[in-house]
Amino acid sequence: MREYEKNIRKVEPYVPGEQPQNKVIKLNTNENPYPPSPRVAKALEEMDSDRFRLYPDPACTALTEALADFYHVNPDQVFVGVGSDDVLSMCFLTFFNSDKPIFFPDITYSFYKVWAELYRIPYECQKLDGDFRIVKEDYYKENGGVIFPNPNAPTALYEELDVVEDIIRANPDVIVIVDEAYVDFAGRSAMELIDRYENLIVVQTFSKARSMAGMRIGYAVSSPRLIKYLNDAKYSFNSYTMNQAALVCGVEAVKDREYFEEGLHKIIKTREWAKGRFEELGFCCLDSRANFIFATHPEYDAKELFEALKDNGIYVRYWGSERIEQYLRITIGTREEMEVLFGFLERYVGRQMPG
Ligand SMILES: *Cc1c(COP(=O)(O)O)cnc(C)c1O
Fold first, then answer.
1. Are residues 244 and 292 in the same domain?
2. Domain end: 212, 228, 256, which one?
3. Atom of ligand 1 nearest to the CA of 218
4. Among 208, 241, 329, 331, which residue has the most ligand 1 atoms within 8 Å of its CB, making it the best to mutate?
5. Residues 251 and 294 occupy one common structural domain
6. Could you read off the pLDDT of 258-288 as tens digits, one per residue?
7. Mutational pocket test of ligand 1: of 104, 205, 211, 241, the residue with most ligand atoms within 8 Å of the beta carbon
8. What is the CA radius of gyration of the chain?
9. Burial (Cβ within 10 Å: 0-12, 13-18, ≥19) of residue 65
10. Model pTM?
11. Spatial separation of the C-alpha atoms in residues 124 and 113, rounded to whole Å
12. What is the distance of C-alpha 297 from the center of its chain?
């Protein structure tokens, strides 16, 4: 071992889902199969590249105001970043500085553990119950902060707002972060609770419901007090996190509420139909409230099925980690993409669909 090695920060990185460059049916990273609002395409066409000479607005004023408008909060309650991964990472750095462990579920977004280790934050995973539900009482214990996604990933299960509020109410002395990457597909957002709990942070993203994973836009909504702390950390790190194109396109996407809502309906409709198809083929699906389905088949090995799908140009996500080794996570694609998936699965499980 080289002498300098002992002073190097070594981390086990997060492993993102594959981004194959060839044409496949891509149901592995929960992207949206539909394009973003046409207003985004228009903004890109009209974009003046001379503007790129200049640094972007470090305060991201236009985007922050558009989001504040959309959610009926003040602009000083909104923080934006390079995808919610950037926002969440900044939250870990800013708010989780206790010697007590932060809490998050044992089965959840695997980036939480990576950030905790990167920033050397102690953490303790709280076990989901046998149905993969959050046990709210587990979060009553003393801790250094709480974070969980709602709906959870990769289970797709949504906890009703009273469960979320219960956890927030039990933790007035720490920061509670609700990662709502998928909430638009689910139900009520914890955004409703922002004015009642100063220590609550709700994080959302443009990557899923808004079809803009490639633009990298995420945001947090909280009390002005916590947003100020986040901004102080950001300006100590990199003042210009958001690029000019993302700022402009982000505003256009937020302003097109109608397109956004139509898109949600299409995905939800396909999801509900897909649940039925999976079940007809003998799969067990958790009750998805997101844009993906977490499914297992009692007779077929998940890893083998994952490989078979991949060999046939259909990419889904498989982890093989404890408690979920027999599960696959399948993103909801277009109806046509899902038809191809089910065509393959019908042959795989050797069952013809009735009718
Ligand atoms: C997709 C996802 C994110 C990150 O999304 P960004 O593309 O970085 O905005 C955060 N949390 C969860 C639970 C996710 O599934």
1. no
2. 256
3. 9
4. 208
5. no
6. 999 999 999 999 999 999 999 999 999 999 9
7. 205
8. 21
9. middle
10. 0.96
11. 9
12. 25
